[in-house]
Design brief:
This protein is 0% helix and 47% strand. The protein is an all-beta fold. The chain folds into three domains: 33-113, Immunoglobulin-like (Sandwich); 119-221, Immunoglobulins (Immunoglobulin-like, Sandwich), CATH 2.60.40.10; 227-309, Immunoglobulin-like, CATH 2.60.40. Strands 14, 15, 17, 18 and 19 form a five-stranded antiparallel β-sheet that branches. A four-stranded antiparallel β-sheet has the order 1-9-8-5, with no helix packed on it.
């Protein structure tokens, strides 16, 4: 058996493009055929491929399969290539035969050697700790030792919501480290959400397996925002009857949790809760109540103007109901 390893000047690694490639010389009535037509192999795994050199046009020993690694066996006009551990990133396969006219008819097969990321991590660029609502921050997904990086898709997530898909601009066969960034503007609804990134090697149809996926850790977000009142504004004047119960609601939300300070009418005791309750209102409770809500982000105020009216229920005094005589 003769296996010819001929230097093909016109064929270099540039042949390792999409799927099987043949030299379209009109003198060639047929071309070698690889099975499979493209090869996807994890770095360090075994691999094999066969090449039917020709059906009728090759004669004698003027055909073969050229490769820098592995073992080549011949069975008639079929070349069988195997390798126990594929660790050569620049592996190529060129199957050829020579015609009687001295024309060389060749085919190559696309070989994708991949390596999933050794690690994937997520962080904020130039930032640690809490975030503030409506300010822009940059998420960074760092991918270590992945190949080929041009086949990598990185997706940023907030919880289960995908925020964006990114791909590398560079092309490398060998493993590289790559960093991907995405700008975000958090709102109060995002407080407590978890950010993370997912990497997926899109290796194409030659492989029936799912794309290798590696995810980062979860990065919890603390979003600080100023107080927001839960209840709508009050009318200019709140009218209440003497003796009734008065509720002044100043409840609000905010992060950090807000504190309350009340400015009450003269000689009224101080209060620091979110809802001010007076069980039996008197005329001494008339006036303006100002609730100030604040945290480290901001401050809001709410005003209540209280007008106390006389109780309209008649008073019974010595058998007289407000001037009406009643027999008892």
């Amino acid at each position: 058996m003769f296996i010819h390893f001929i230097l093909l000047v016109s064929y270099s690694l540039t042949f390792l493009c999409t799927h099987q490639v043949s030299s379209f010389d009109p003198s060639c009535t047929e071309f070698p055929v690889f099975t499979p037509s493209a090869l996807v192999v994890k770095y360090g795994d075994p691999a094999n491929v066969t090449c039917v050199v020709c059906q009728k046009d090759c004669r004698g020993d003027s055909f073969g399969l050229e490769t820098p690694v592995g073992e080549v066996r011949q069975n008639g006009t079929t070349m069988i290539w195997t390798v126990d551990r594929l660790t050569e990133w620049d592996t190529y396969l060129i199957c050829y035969y020579n015609t009687d006219d001295g024309v060389q008819c060749t085919s190559t097969v696309d070989i994708t050697i991949y390596q999933p990321p050794e690690s994937v991590s997520i962080s904020f660029v130039n930032h640690t700790g809490m975030m503030f609502e409506n300010q822009q921050y940059t998420l960074q997904c760092s991918v270590q030792n992945v190949a080929p990086v041009q086949n990598l898709t990185v997706t940023f997530y907030r919880g289960n919501t995908a925020l964006g898909h990114l791909q590398a601009n560079s092309e490398h066969k060998k493993p590289v480290n790559e960093t991907f960034t995405l700008n975000i503007t958090p709102s109060r609804e995002h407080d407590g959400a978890q950010y993370w990134c997912e990497t997926k090697l899109e290796l194409g149809p030659p492989t029936s397996q799912r794309p290798p996926v590696v995810t980062s850790e979860k990065l919890p977000a603390i979003v600080h925002y100023g107080p927001e009142l839960k209840e709508p504004p009050n009318p200019d004047v709140i009218t209440i009857t003497e003796g009734d119960t008065l509720h002044l609601n100043c409840s609000s939300v905010g992060n950090p949790s807000p504190s309350y300070t009340w400015t009450l009418p003269t000689n009224s005791p101080s209060y620091s809760g979110s809802v001010l309750t007076i069980k039996s209102v008197g005329f001494e409770h008339e006036g303006q109540y100002i609730c100030t809500v604040s945290n480290t982000v901001g401050t809001v105020t709410k005003e209540f103007n209280i007008d106390v009216q006389v109780n309209s229920i008649p008073y019974i005094i010595s058998g007289t109901i407000l001037g009406a005589l009643v027999l008892v």
